Task: inverse folding
């Protein structure tokens, strides 16, 4: 499906305003090209290729063009993280980005670091639905909107960030802030933008576009709550999907993640005020463009800083470790490493902390860092058996596990109501967990602090001066016996065990 054109409306007619919007999202600090399972050996992505793809899309249109990004731009690679995103800001400046939405991972290094990166950016960072909890006012550093003027066209752009942010970053990083869900949080700003006399209004939001049987992401929900009289386009992100669709008549676009694609949306406005559109997704194949030299120059400087660290060999894998299904070997490796690094009874890791697959063959530190780039520390939490079971219940709220565990096997029933799905928890010793007994649960500090909503933040805990990634490296470099049991699921659905 990638690379195909999705035409969503009539062709443009004469005597119109024509605006092309080029969008990216969830870059996650990805500076370099690489192959993917879909690319059949062709190199994809990298910020220099991303810039060149945008250059090409702008040149072929010969129309007013803007470049926007829907958040989570910096966190995720050594080239970015060792300088707290400074390298990616310089690359995005060279790419001539016009505006960015703030994403949840922009808070990973704290508000002060975010503000420092904002000061270095030649483009504004936007979020209209962030407020101080105590006053209800918007933070002075979070601009709610901006108005761009180009080629006689005025474009109002409003920022939005997922309301789930407080549960998916370390709580201390967003302390004192509230992230309000829905169109009502934007109502005053959208009115202000309309009053300013813009030709097009666009929401650039770090908010999901994916829908399943019972729910849709916040970008789609925003569209359903608004109308084409208020908003002409929503650019989404956060869930790393490809989307070129409509909701409530409003076009919604999302261009995958890690620089693998660019969203291309053409908006046309006639003299009578009616707006039509077309859109497609361009995959960023490196052999289709000449890398943007300005971006190449920026990234070359930073890549030289981390070459020796990134290229250090950690181990060699006989088989690939992909993220496949709800229970997979790579997740079990994480959980085993967390437990081994703490001497706990049970280890647990949230799946959101596992960000990439590991390929077979030589594994370098740089590759492993992309799998877990967050710098999480190990925490030991003292729990009762009942609290341990409640933790597993939380991980099963959506019917399938969102964690991997070590030192135990959890049998659950996916057809039971949420909160009642755990059937049995048995330790690796064979002992069934006693609700009244005391146990040590090892988790990343993000989880211990209540991240992802886990009910652990009020329990006794000790955070160690030991990094999750270092524990994974130690296990990978062990004698090999520790890797023998990774394929066995530790959370098993008694209704449909083959699905796990």
Result:
């Amino acid at each position: 499906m990638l690379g195909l054109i999705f035409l969503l409306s009539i062709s443009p007619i004469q005597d119109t305003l024509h605006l092309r919007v080029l969008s990216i999202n969830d870059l996650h600090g990805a500076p370099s090209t690489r192959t993917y399972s879909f690319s059949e050996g062709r190199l994809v992505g990298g910020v220099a290729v991303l810039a060149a793809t945008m250059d090409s899309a702008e040149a072929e249109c010969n129309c007013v063009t803007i470049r926007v990004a829907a958040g989570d731009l910096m966190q995720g690679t050594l080239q970015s993280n060792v300088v707290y995103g400074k390298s990616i800001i310089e690359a995005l400046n060279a790419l001539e980005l016009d505006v960015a939405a703030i994403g949840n991972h922009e808070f990973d290094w704290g508000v002060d670091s975010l503000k420092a990166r904002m000061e270095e950016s030649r483009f504004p960072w936007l979020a209209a639905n962030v407020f101080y909890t105590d006053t209800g006012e918007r933070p002075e550093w979070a601009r709610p909107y901006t108005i761009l003027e180009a080629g006689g066209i005025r474009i109002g752009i409003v920022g939005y960030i997922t309301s789930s942010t407080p549960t998916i970053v370390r709580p201390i990083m967003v302390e004192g802030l509230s992230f309000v869900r829905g169109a009502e949080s934007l109502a005053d700003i959208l009115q202000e933008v309309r009053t300013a006399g813009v030709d097009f209004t666009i929401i650039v939001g770090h908010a999901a576009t994916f829908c399943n049987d019972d729910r849709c992401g916040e970008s789609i929900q925003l569209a359903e709550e608004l109308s084409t009289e208020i908003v002409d386009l929503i650019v989404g992100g956060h869930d790393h999907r490809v989307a070129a669709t409509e909701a409530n008549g409003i076009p919604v676009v999302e261009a995958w993640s890690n620089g693998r694609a660019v969203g291309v949306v053409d908006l046309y406005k006639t003299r009578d005020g009616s707006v039509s559109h077309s859109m497609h997704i361009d995959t960023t194949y490196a052999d289709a463009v000449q890398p943007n030299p300005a971006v190449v120059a920026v990234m070359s400087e930073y890549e030289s800083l981390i070459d020796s660290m990134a290229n250090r060999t950690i181990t060699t894998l006989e088989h690939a470790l992909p993220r496949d299904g709800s229970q997979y070997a790579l997740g079990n490796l994480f959980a085993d490493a967390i437990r081994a690094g703490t001497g706990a009874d049970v280890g647990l890791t949230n799946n959101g902390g596992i960000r990439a697959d590991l390929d077979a063959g030589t594994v370098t530190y740089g590759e492993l860092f992309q799998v877990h780039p967050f710098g999480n520390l190990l925490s030991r939490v003292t729990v009762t058996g009942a609290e341990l079971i409640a933790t597993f219940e939380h991980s099963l709220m959506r019917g399938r596990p969102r964690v991997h565990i070590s030192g135990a096997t959890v049998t659950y029933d996916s057809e039971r109501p949420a909160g009642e799905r755990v059937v049995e928890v048995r330790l690796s010793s064979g002992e069934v967990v006693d609700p009244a007994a005391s146990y040590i649960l090892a988790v990343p500090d993000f989880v211990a602090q209540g991240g992802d909503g886990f009910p652990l933040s009020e329990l006794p805990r000790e955070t160690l001066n030991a990094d999750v990634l270092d524990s994974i490296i130690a296990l990978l470099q062990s004698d090999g016996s520790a890797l023998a049991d990774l394929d066995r699921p530790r959370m098993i659905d008694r209704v449909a065990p083959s699905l796990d």
